[in-house]
Amino acid sequence: MIIPALELKDVESGYEQAMVLRGVSLQIAPGEIMALLGKNGMGKTTLLKAVIGYLPKRAGTVQVFGQDVTHWPAHRVARQRVAYSPQEQALFAELSIRDNLRLGLSSDKGFDEGYAAMTEHFPFLAGRLAQLAGTLSGGEQKMLVVARALMMRPRLILIDEITEGLQPSVITRLAASLRRERATHGTAMLIVEQNVGFALQVADRYSVLKRGEIVAVGATADPSAEQIINSQLQV
Amino acid sequence: MLVVAVAPFMLDSYTLSILVRAIFFAMLALTVDILWGYTGVLTFGQSAFFGAGAYAAGLVFTHLGFSPEMAALALGEALLSAGLIALLVGWLSFYHGATPLYASVISLVLPIVMTQLLFSGGTFTGSSSGLTGYVSFDLSLEAWFWWAGFALIAITALAWRFVHSDAGRLLVATRDNEMRCSYLGINTSTLKIGLLVATALVAAVAGFGYASFSGVVAPELAGFVFGTEIIIWVALGGRGTLIGPVFGALLIECASAYLGGSLPYVWKLLLGAAFVGVIVLLPQGLLPALLARWLPKHWATSAKPAVTLVEAAARPTSGAQATEAVALRGVGKHYGSLRVLKDIDLVAAPGELVSLIGPNGAGKTTLMRCMSDGAERSSGTVHIAGNDIGRAPPYVAVRYGLGRKFQTANVFATLTVAESLRIARTRLDPPSLWRRAEQLALPAYALAVLQVTQLDKKLDTEARNLSHGEQQALELAMVLAMEPRVLLLDEPTAGLTLAERTLIGQVFLDLTHRFGLCLLLVEHDIEFVREISTRLVVLHEGHIAMQGSVQEVVESELVRTIYSGAAATPHGASA
Predict the structure, then answer these.
(1) What percent of chain A has a predicted confidence (pLDDT) above 90?
(2) Which of B367, B524, B554 to mutate to test the interface with A (most CBs of A within 10 A)?
(3) Which of residues 18-57 of A touch B (CB under 8 A)?
(4) Boundaries of every domain in chain A
(5) Is the predicted ipTM greater than 0.90, yes or no?
(6) Cα–Cα distance for residue pair B397/B374, rounded to 1 Å
(7) What is the C-alpha separation between A122 and A146, in angstroms, rounded?
(8) Which chain B residues in 166-225 lie under 8 Å from chain A, judged by CB atoms?
(9) A172 vs B566: CB contact, 8 Å cut-off?
């Protein structure tokens, strides 16, 4: 039996009094890309935060490659080579692009190679290593956050609304980049998206989250996938 | 109150006199809590105003003698000097662009300067030994206790009323997000200077009372050691609670008086250890921790009255409408030798919806910043509804009718949805200093945004507990609540679903067609832009590369190469 890259079993989590996730179960195989869709306030970001260890779990278990990480703090989960690319621009504004990218690695070894790969995904990074991250435009900052997460060669990466604020041509290229990353390194991905078209293009499977529960799961190759998703997002 | 009324009969005179002193200190702690706990201004300098009040009494009574007229003169002098110093210090600390750290440093310098002045005053100020032995009010200890005690209760009650009123929420808004306040047309500098003056006056009265009661004034009363001690009282008692700091001051002063005598050095050590312990274990302070344990839960949460939303009456548009809602001429921006914007000429009329598109990093957000903050651009002029914004901070452009929604949600973290919207209405419906209004009047289009995103069902939720997309919608509703004439929207639909996007698009069309607003939109969703825009402007490498009708621009070779990339990508699955 293959050990899943990520397995959630009946996870309940939330903030103080507010219970956001009400028993979420989810499985992602190694090298699989799963898109997590849903309307606003349905708990998509909360789910990512619960996985990475920012939020305590009230019930259920979270396993990463067979390791129970349910009650681990974020830095320990990250050491399992789980990367998180949050929605808000979580950069070190006063540090250079180089330093921001370097922070994902434990040593200088592999930086040049990783950087070369990242400039291929995000050409704007080329030749701008010394620029301070805070002086980048909003869209460029988003790309840098993803690049930083990919730098550490994660086995599993969680990406929150990467397409927000990006120009169309960049989104198209990004879809190809993520699929290439998966093909070469076998990275499993959980991507939260509002852009259904992008999600269907990148992911192998999709899940729809509604009021803290998964209400639909399916393969993106299914011709009726888009219709099912849109009907779930309507109401 | 009962406690204050009967306490003199229960306590011995030593305890009573310590309590009276502590009560005056507690008033001072109250002012620090308003500044630090509610407004986020960390100040070490409130002791200076206390000292000013105390010395006003000491100096007048020593050199001119005591009479009711002289007492009135001394009180007037206390208020005047503290008020003037606060005005000067406030202006120095809070001018536009000053950082909070800078304000704290000034608050540290102030008491040091004050003590130096008192030291160098020779026999006039009594130098380091201060002034003693002057005649003051002829009151019994009990009378002093009653006066001071009831005054403290009255001041606490007033402060309580104020911070929980609609106007009081402004303090929290300033603490949470000063930039947002400025973009809601609120001049936070004036607000903070006014607040500093008001708290300085209270501190001066407390100092005046203290000097009249104790018959001693010393330079330490104005010093920064004392100023720092107040911070400790407030932190121990629980900042941002008013009652906590009052009890913190009373408790520590009384304990100090008793234990400081019997255990002179150990006591300081104990106090220090307790301070560290509370900061580490109960970061909110003692009072909130105790309340959380013993008070039933609904007590803490049911305090907020429900707010109902109503539609605001339409406002007559003042005077003739300017034909140019927004006009930029020759606007440029450079950081050193790096030129981010070059020679931008852009004019938009009321009722127009102009969309700015361009690659990431083209300067779109910088352009929006230049339109709203006069200090941003390097060259050129910006007019909003015919008014030159000059070099003025954002609140000026906002007063000319500008509203700006930022790229990443920019809201007040600890205010609820209803409170945030109320803050946004500050300029149109001045808030009450004493009450919470039960109704919140908003223009129809702001209500529509709330309904579409279902935020109207979450009026009592704090902004930080909203999802990312809901925060975006809240910010949009706040900007609309100001009834602007020109709207700058930086990716207003980011984080919204397709269905919500379509509905928000309808709201935008309504804004331009029915209400004649001018909208400038930065968006990457070409489909969305195509459906609602009247004109497209393409920004590329800091200059306007092209502008024209939607059709012209979207189909141009330029946009295809620099922006949207190859022809439409196949939808749906890929293996």
Answers:
(1) 51
(2) B524
(3) 18, 39-42, 45
(4) 6-88+154-234
(5) no
(6) 8
(7) 10
(8) none
(9) yes
Residue A155: CB partners within 8 Å, gap ≥ 6?
Answer: A5, A30, A65, A80, A81, A82, A186, A187, A188
At B305 the pLDDT is: 59
- Does A6-88+154-234 carry CATH code 3.40.50.20? no
What pLDDT was estimated at residue B200? Answer: 96
A·B CB contacts under 8 A:
120
Q: Min CA distance, A113 vs chain B (Å)?
A: 25
DSSP letter at B485? S
Identify the pLDDT of residue B296.
56
- pLDDT (tens digit per residue) in B500-513: 888 889 889 999 99
- Do A149 and A141 contact (CB within 8 A), yes or no? no
Q: Cα(A152)–Cα(B25) distance, rounded to whole angstroms?
A: 56
The first and second tokens of residue B387, run together, are: 């008014």
Mean pLDDT is lowest, of A40-49, B63-72, B320-329, B547-556, for B320-329
Residue B505: name the closest of B536, B532, B474, B481 by CA. B532
- Given a contact cutoff of 8 angstroms between Cβ atoms, the answer to whether B234 and B29 are in contact is yes
List, in order, residues 6 or more apart from A30 with CB less than 8 Å away.
Answer: A2, A3, A4, A5, A65, A155, A186, A188
Contact B378, B333 (CB under 8 A): yes
**Looking up tokens 């008070």, which residue turns up?**
B295
In the stretch 194-233 of chain A, residues with CB closer than 8 A to chain B read 194, 196-197, 200-201, 219-223, 225-226, 230, 233
| Closest Cβ opposite residue B407 in set A138, A175, A219 | A138
Q: Do B335 and A135 touch (CB under 8 A)?
A: yes
Chain A closest CA to B188's CA: distance in Å? 25
**Given an 8 Å threshold on Cβ–Cβ distance, is A233 in contact with B364?**
no
